[in-house]
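Justification of computing resources. Each target in the renewal requires a structure prediction run like the one illustrated here; the chain below, 463 residues long, is used simply to show the kind of job we budget for.
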Amino acid sequence: MQDQLRRLPKVQTLLEGDAAAGLIARHGREDVANAIRAKLDIARAKIMAAGGASISVISEQSLFDEIATDLNAAKAPTLKRAINATGVIIHTNLGRARLAPEAIEAMQSVAAHYSSLELALDNGKRGTRHAHVEDLICQLTGAEAAMVVNNCAAAILTCLSALASGQQVIASRGELVEIGGSFRMPDVITQSGAVLKEVGTTNKTHLRDYAEAIGDDTALLLKSHTSNYAIVGFTSAPDRQELAQLAHETGTFLLEDLGSGVLIDLSKYGLREDPVVRDVLAAGVDLVTFSGDKLLGGPQAGIIAGRRALIDRIKKHPMARAVRIDKLSLAALRATLALYKSPHEPIARIPVLQMLAEPIEHIRDRANQLCTAIQKETSLRAVQIASTARAGAGSLPQQDLPSAAIALSREDTSVDALAEQFRKAETPIIGRITQDQFLLDMRAVAAEEVAMIIAAARAISPK
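Resulting structure tokens:
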């Protein structure tokens, strides 16, 4: 055993050899040295475990081949493009909304150069980053004022911290939602320093429940749009106009969290009617919060819109500084919002809206193209089937979108293994497993991505 241990090469000797030179040039001496030590530690442990029995130790060439593979894998990007064939359009795990070309161009311009992020160009003094989107948001929603933070959860937390800390917030038990990542509305309220007062029951809350709960220490009424679930059957809840009137009569105000912010009427495209921000504010709601990266179709952002006096108070609160939006997201949001104004047609330019409204015939055509190519060019079994897609990210929870999918299988491979092989393609392809079938749903797959899926299928299972 000692003789075998002595025959292991020294780290310094390996580093000075020709085989290491190329790796050092690409990865740096420290990383190569650490990788060599790790491989030698493994070899040393094998010798010790053998207890004196003769074992084969990896050759120097094989050692460096393995090190090259490990170093390349360690430095490969973990955040990379993927193809969304899950049938969930706004997929949180896959980055939610795909951005419009105009938004991407705006981000690139700001990223590559200095910008007027917080500089007022008219007088050369310090400005506010909110100015870049506030006017657009107000034009599109009818709000008196607006501001933007880095996500919708931050928007709610900031509003409550600035306007209700140490005071009572009244909310219906049927609206105490849990949003993504297990963040619960009661926890957000507690974190803000406000005191939650629950009223009503899970399925029924009346206007009188709010009225009876309002006291001298009540700061606001909180309404949460149940965008990620629905309660059906024996239900009742006051509408927002009634709540707004009650709030104003009692010297409080109404804050509504919409979750997915909708700026246009989606019902004309065959989608379930969702509250449009302009209509919510017109009903008397004082403040609304909504996301930029869901049905709006922009970057991750939390938008707060409503009465100027309230917005001004929120802008001055320290929390607003802690959760402020970054310059790239701000540029993308402005470009996305601009697509909602004439002469643009948002359905034609914003990818999320395009995918939601796309006719089923177009989706079937892409599915047929993919299915035919896989049958001809690979050894996979491919069958085109009818499918159901969803908006995702808590948006339009009861809206089924007709879609088309390809069911893939191979005689010697489980559906889990097949799904893994597609996930590990050069460009990861993420499908879904339903009823022991591996499916590639085509509603969120772009036309140019069909060829990429075909190439991956050929590599995974050649003819």
